Amino acid sequence: MVNPWLAMEAGADPVERTRTVRRAHAAFLADGTVAPPVRQVVADSWRRSADARAAADGTAPIELDESALGAYRDGHPLARAMPVFRELLGSFAQDGAHLLAVCDPQGRLLWVEGHRGVRRSAERMNFVVGARWDERHAGTNAPGTALAADHAVQIFAAEHYNRQVQRWTCAAAPLHDPRTGRLLGAVDITGGDHLASPHSLALVQATARAAEAHLAAGVPEWGVCLSALGRDEALLVVDGERCRLGRRHSEIMVLLAGHPEGLTGDQLSVLLYGERERRPVTLRAELSRLRQLVGTLLHSRPYRLSRPVETDVRTVEEALAAGDPHAALAAYRGPLLPLSEAPGVQRLRGALEDRTRCALLGAHDPALLREWSRTPWGEDDLVIWEALVDALPERSPARTAPMATADRLRAAYGLTGASRAGTAPAPAPSRVATFPQPPRP
User: Engineering a disulfide at 170: which of 124, 164, 190, 238 sits with its beta carbon 3.0 to 4.6 angstroms away?
Assistant: First the structure.
């Protein structure tokens, strides 16, 4: 079976592959169609890049300047893993005329090291520390696509969405917190076409696993963690063992984690299904299947979780309660279970988003407002855009760009006056209210 995450099968002609994929790329930009030999993972990434209006030409934006980079990088969890990256990939990058890069979950490059000549060449496309290389801002590329798919991947030459990057080939693997399972970032090697081999992908995968093992060695104790922000299917980690839950089980776990005192069957049923009539056997069957996955973690009479559960929702709430909007925004990975229609989840989702937005609006910090406006859930938020304009210095040349975007959004929604304070516009009909999801194991 061909590995779909590898750029080319053994014996393939890289010149011919580049030619055919470049033609497919041009066709996709012209009419949105994509066909073989484009891999499915690349086709999916092209579509996400197009939906996010990523530029097919141009350079990635610089989001972390020198003053902000140092402290952020020093405090990042992956700083502890840099000795592992340098030991396993540093000499490979230096001797093979490649680059070693490490980014955070938002795709911002925190370290870029390796061959000096290659670094100078990469600077021309802003592959430098502080630049944002997620798919939304740089299109299809190995670190950005590895983050979006939560899987190690190679991106070869013309598979890159941005034409300026199509002379490069790269391989990247995501990294996770060994205790919570949450995404920490990605490690990448970037260079020439010779990186399009099974060895480079295997090397970054092995490096990522070694780095996670190194981080795990410093974990004082295990526990139970639940991640559900920005995910359609929650990630449950119990004593280091990760499990991706189905959508209904995700809703149940989120509701039980939010009610540590427990819920009766009737209470849980209303939070899951609303007031519409539902046979009790339906809920019991779901809970029985969930118990098969989580074992003694799920108790009944009332339904509750037997151990304390650390959730990403709670992390955001604690940061908000402490008056720290920077920490809250860093922990807010997106709306809670964005596709869930369970009434209880919808209420939790709306309350958390409202509290987070209010904290950002109250902080009057251009950096926080700009970060929210660059997310899939905040890019059409007119109130945030207008607050960003107001928060910028009066003579700042950047004032005109947000205002232009706000005007464009007003026209798109048929609005002529200022948005009502505290009110976000309805999503555009063509936009899907979800985000790139990891593949099922």
Answer: 190
pLDDT tens digits, one per residue of 202-234: 999 999 999 999 999 877 678 999 999 999 999
The answer to whether the CB of 159 falls within 8 A of the CB of 61 is: no
Give the pTM: 0.83
Please give the structure tokens belonging to residue 432.
Answer: 């899907």
Choose the weakest-confidence range: 32-46, 108-122, 421-435: 421-435
What's the CATH code of the domain at 258? 1.10.10.10
Q: Does the residue 67 lie in any domain?
A: yes
Residue 256 has pLDDT above 90, yes or no: yes
For residue 253, give its domain range: 222-355
357-414: pLDDT as tens digits: 999 999 999 989 988 998 889 988 999 999 998 888 876 655 555 555 555 544 444 4
* Radius of gyration of the chain, Cα coordinates, nearest whole angstrom: 23
Pairing relationship of beta strands 235-238 and 99-103 according to DSSP bridges: unpaired
Mean pLDDT across the stretch 53-62?
93
Do 211 and 227 fall into the same domain?
Answer: no
Q: In whole angstroms, give the CA distance from residue 177 to residue 59.
A: 30
